[in-house]
């Protein structure tokens, strides 16, 4: 009876539509598949639009966030008040084809764009097909691998050597790591910021290389003006000068110029950062100036015996992790649990002689000491231990009208070669000092270089692997089984 009823129903449906029931089912199946595909495509389009508009919806699962930007970069992008354009001088596919790191650079540019709320735009203009670009930058030697960051009539051209670190093997040069994020951040700050500060750098008798310091200052919107205090007066419009590691004493006239500069006709409000030369120097004129600010040069180099303060390269004098003094100056933005310390090498020790006007800034541990320059090869460190040897200090002068600061740093390497050390915060600390001395609030760029280690999942952290594994091996199969069961039950009822 039931079979007859079904046959009757089937013949009625076929007569009404003119199509067999089997063909109808096939047609419905095709429509279902098309709807699923259309839904997947629509979902992909919606997700693409949302991730383009809302950067927080994207995720970088590499362990060092290779393809995403850090909090400092997000802050720079979000605080932009002017329109900035990032221009790659070739098409995107060609640029990314140069090297895997180039794809990372384009991703960084896209991330900056997403977080900028429309202030940053990214474009690709082929230099070969658009030679008029060269006409616009006639004084520049442009290449298709260059990136131009511009804001109104100001621009900064980034070469590949600015974006990436290279090594040479024979005749072959290859990229070892990327600094694209810090390079783009720096360029954005330079072209968009109105807060360019001039710092004087006194280079009399300086034999240590300070080119790294100049480059880092320039990258953070500080214009460096090299000065000779022996020959010239210090310009009145410079608020901070750095006396860099003189290998001999300044003349009395030169020190008088520094004295007069800090006093500023009784208005004070000036700053001198004195960076000491590591080797023994007889410098009575410089010593006299330091004593007026409550400090005295010690006769020798500071050494450290606390192994917890010594890096793998340390020898007691070099590559020592200095501690912040209890006054905690210039570290308001430090996270004591997360941030690495400041690295110091071959530092001349300083003594606080007047605690009313001078305080230590950086110190070695309770197991540190001072090795006199006159010590022979048979000296014993136990005989020269002094608790918490200061390797940086600050003295002040002035009064109600204003304060001038003289900051002493015993280590020139802290301001030069060690600025390039990853995992330490020399850059951050130095710019904390400079920004506070010059009343600057704009963020600095203190980012580490990023390295592509592998092209597989070995670069993904453990928690992300577990989540991915759960989705692939558990959640997805369960969802498929549930969907299959639902289809089975629906069909069975029919």
Task: Write structural notes for this entry.
By secondary structure, the protein is of the alpha/beta class. It folds into four domains: 33 residues; 130 residues, Glutaredoxin (3-Layer(aba) Sandwich); 242 residues, Rossmann fold (3-Layer(aba) Sandwich); 34 residues. It has 13 helices and 18 strands. Strands 8-7-9-10-18-17-15-12-13 form a nine-stranded mixed β-sheet, with helices on both faces. The protein is elongated. About 4% of the residues have low confidence.
Shape: elongated
Record field, number of beta strands: 18
| CATH C-level class of the largest domain | Alpha Beta
What topology, given as strand order, has the largest sheet?
A: 8-7-9-10-18-17-15-12-13
Q: Unreliable runs, pLDDT <50, ≥5 residues? A: 54-65, 453-461
Mean pLDDT value: 81
Reported for the largest beta sheet, the result is: 9 strands, mixed
